[in-house]
């Protein structure tokens, strides 16, 4: 077996592993009855998490729209003004209405958050009456947000339903990059913890 063949096998195996990790993350921290991404309920809430990078927040809006029937859902766009005068929530809402045809009447804005924790805690009161909740973001970020929601509001977390944040090989190498980012983020977080807490 030549070096190029061995290299191709190694790369292919690594990419397949990243795809599997991403698929698994899309199913984690969800109630058993919430694993079907095709489940749609009238009045369900799609919480869309903001991001400073326009390409990424547009991707998150597309995830939100493909996860529901826009005519039957309420979209909460969450994100404050970070790198511009316009909030991330407003930018995402504009894209949803103008480009993707989401009814403006089905949109609510949460435009004060600057972190993922704030995205969740500031949006909880807006989701209180939702029969189902889907969190739209890139896969690992959505999983982290679900974990935060579980800690902040177990009652709402019990209504979580899987969003369509995973499609095989979407954006080419994007899933491999997301896995690498998640590993790096967790290592940084681990080193930032006090020594006496790291064993936990």
Report what the structure shows:
By secondary structure, the protein is of the alpha/beta class. It has one domain (8-178): 3-Layer(aba) Sandwich (Rossmann fold). Helix content is 47%, strand content 9%. The protein has seven helices and four strands. The chain has helices spanning 3-27, 54-66, 88-98, 116-123, 139-152, 154-157, 174-192, and strands at 45-49, 74-78, 107-110, 133-136. Helix 1 (3-27) packs across helix 7. The longest helix is centred in the first third of the chain and has 25 residues, at 3-27. The model has no long low-confidence stretch (mean pLDDT 88). InterPro entries: Cell_Envelope_Assoc, DUF218, Rossmann-like_a/b/a_fold. Residues 45-184 form the DUF218 domain. This is DUF218 domain-containing protein.
**H/E series:** HEHEHEHEHHH
Low-confidence stretches: none
Head-to-tail CA distance between termini: 45 Å
* Main sheet properties: 4 strands, parallel
Stated plainly, the CATH topology is called Rossmann fold
What is the domain total for the residues? Answer: 1
Helix content estimate: 40-55%
Please identify the top-level CATH class.
Alpha Beta
CATH superfamily: HUPs
Using only CA atoms, what is the Rg? 18 Å
Number of helices: 7
Could you say which structural class the secondary elements and strand pairing correspond to? alpha/beta
State the CATH architecture. Answer: 3-Layer(aba) Sandwich
Q: How are the strands of the largest sheet arranged?
A: 3-2-1-4
The total beta strand count reads 4
pLDDT averaged residue by residue: 88
Instruction: Categorize the overall geometry.
Output: globular
> How much of the polypeptide forms β-strand, as a percent range?
5-15%
Protein name: DUF218 domain-containing protein
InterPro entries: Cell_Envelope_Assoc (IPR051599), DUF218 (IPR003848), Rossmann-like_a/b/a_fold (IPR014729)
Organism: Mycolicibacterium wolinskyi
Domain DUF218: 45-184
């Amino acid at each position: 077996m030549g070096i190029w063949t061995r290299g191709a096998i190694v790369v292919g195996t690594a990419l397949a592993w990243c795809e599997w990790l991403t698929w698994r993350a899309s199913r984690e921290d969800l109630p058993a009855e919430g694993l079907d991404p095709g489940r749609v309920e009238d009045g369900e809430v799609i919480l869309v998490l903001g991001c400073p990078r326009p390409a990424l927040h547009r991707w998150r809006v597309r995830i939100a729209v493909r996860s529901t029937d826009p005519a039957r859902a309420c979209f909460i766009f969450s994100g404050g003004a970070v790198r511009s005068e316009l909030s991330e929530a407003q930018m995402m809402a504009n894209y949803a209405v103008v480009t993707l045809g989401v009814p403006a009447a089905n949109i609510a804005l949460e435009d004060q958050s600057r972190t993922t924790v704030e995205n969740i805690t500031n949006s909880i009161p807006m989701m209180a009456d939702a029969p189902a909740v889907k969190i739209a973001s890139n896969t690992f970020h959505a999983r982290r947000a679900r974990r935060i929601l579980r800690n902040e509001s177990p009652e709402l977390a019990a209504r979580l339903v899987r969003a369509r944040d995973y499609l095989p090989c979407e954006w080419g190498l994007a899933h491999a990059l997301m896995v690498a980012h998640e590993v790096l983020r967790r290592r940084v977080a681990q080193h930032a913890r006090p020594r006496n807490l790291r064993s936990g």
